[in-house]
């Protein structure tokens, strides 16, 4: 799978709310109403990731925040697969 350039990534992220390109990955931090909502979001994202066979790094912190970081580790950066996962995550809202 082809790595996307920084310009391609930023163009694609322009349609996704609050996703950022940093350290060869795309990232977003979600603020939920409480711990259980953050945990539920993590599980919902996990289900989507499993269906796509593409798994993000997720960090649940500060009792109500979930940071999601996506990259294609085998390629060493961001690919279309990462953008697709971010789009699917956005559909949860």
TrEMBL record:
GO terms for molecular function: 4-alpha-hydroxytetrahydrobiopterin dehydratase activity. It holds the Pfam family Pterin_4a. Its EC number is 4.2.1.96. Transmembrane segments: none annotated. This is 4a-hydroxytetrahydrobiopterin dehydratase. Belongs to the pterin-4-alpha-carbinolamine dehydratase family. Keywords: Lyase. GO terms for biological process: tetrahydrobiopterin biosynthetic process. It comes from Stygiobacter electus. It is an enzyme of class 4 (lyase). PANTHER family: PTERIN-4-ALPHA-CARBINOLAMINE DEHYDRATASE. It catalyses: (4aS,6R)-4a-hydroxy-L-erythro-5,6,7,8-tetrahydrobiopterin = (6R)-L-erythro-6,7-dihydrobiopterin + H2O.
């Amino acid at each position: 799978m082809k790595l996307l350039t920084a310009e391609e990534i930023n163009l694609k992220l322009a349609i996704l709310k609050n996703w950022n390109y940093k350290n060869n990955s795309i990232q977003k931090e979600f603020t939920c109403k409480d711990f259980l909502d953050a945990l539920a979001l993590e599980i919902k994202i996990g289900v989507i990731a499993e269906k796509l066979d593409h798994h993000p790094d997720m960090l649940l912190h500060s009792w109500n925040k979930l940071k999601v970081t996506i990259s294609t580790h085998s390629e060493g950066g961001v690919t279309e697969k990462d953008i697709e996962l971010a789009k699917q995550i956005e559909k949860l809202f």
